[in-house]
Amino acid sequence: MNDLNISLAIADDHRAVRQAFRNAFSRFGFLSVAFEAENGKDLIAELSRQQPDVVLLDIKMPEVNGIEALKIIHEKFPTVKILILTAYFDEVYVAECLQYGINGYLTKNMDILDIVNAIKMAFNNEVYLTNLLMDSHLKSYIVKHKKNMNTVLPEFTCEELKILELMKLEKTTDEISHIMHLSKRSIELKRDKMKEKANVKTIGGLLLYCLKRGFIE
Q1: Are the beta carbons of 33 and 8 closer than 8 angstroms?
Q2: What does the pLDDT look like over 18-48, one tens digit per residue?
Q3: Can you tell me the distance from the alpha carbon of 216 to that of 164, in angstroms, rounded to the nearest whole number?
Q4: Which segments of 157-216 does DSSP mark as H helices, in order?
Q5: Fold classification of 146-212 (topology level)
Q6: pTM, rounded to two decimals
Q7: Among 2, 5, 40, 131, which is most buried by a count of CB atoms within 10 Å?
Q8: 6-138 and 146-212 share one CATH topology?
Q9: What is the CATH number assigned to the segment(s) 6-138?
Q10: How far is CA 48 from CA 39, 71, 95, 103, 114, in A?
């Protein structure tokens, strides 16, 4: 029996888009849309009253846009998982969003099953990033904007680097645990240790840090 239940919020300034995704998600019994918002201001206001498990957040919205809303959510509602869901794939947006702890950056033309998979990963505090890390434009942007390369880099163990590679391949904590024959708790502790070494707070930030510095490709 599947006891999975994930509540969602959809923030997009186009009513037709919100309705289309609401209808699509209704096919999956474990998904429910708690509320919709047509801009970042309304989203933040509603989050102060109720906090769904996952927010699907568009970037270009009136009043308070998605980037501004993301920063506020990251500060005020840190337990809420965020998936950027937008028509725009922009390297600058992606890099900025990763620094604020998003659980994935999705485009609206993706297959609905991939979007649902990303929602499930976000719910489990995983990060859906394979579609980003395989993008040549994003890789080029990161290479051009490497920072602090003259500073002393942290030393990651072979085991930690293996975990990073598996994270990049979109493996869940349970899958990494099985592949590496380590407990789930051990994987979580090693992941936290890597974030500490890199001086970042989120998994997305860790992956971006390691991409910039060549630990993963």
Answers
A1: yes
A2: 999 999 999 999 999 999 999 999 999 999 9
A3: 7
A4: 158-168, 173-180, 184-198, 203-212
A5: Arc Repressor Mutant, subunit A (1.10.10)
A6: 0.67
A7: 40
A8: no
A9: 3.40.50.2300
A10: 15, 15, 27, 21, 29
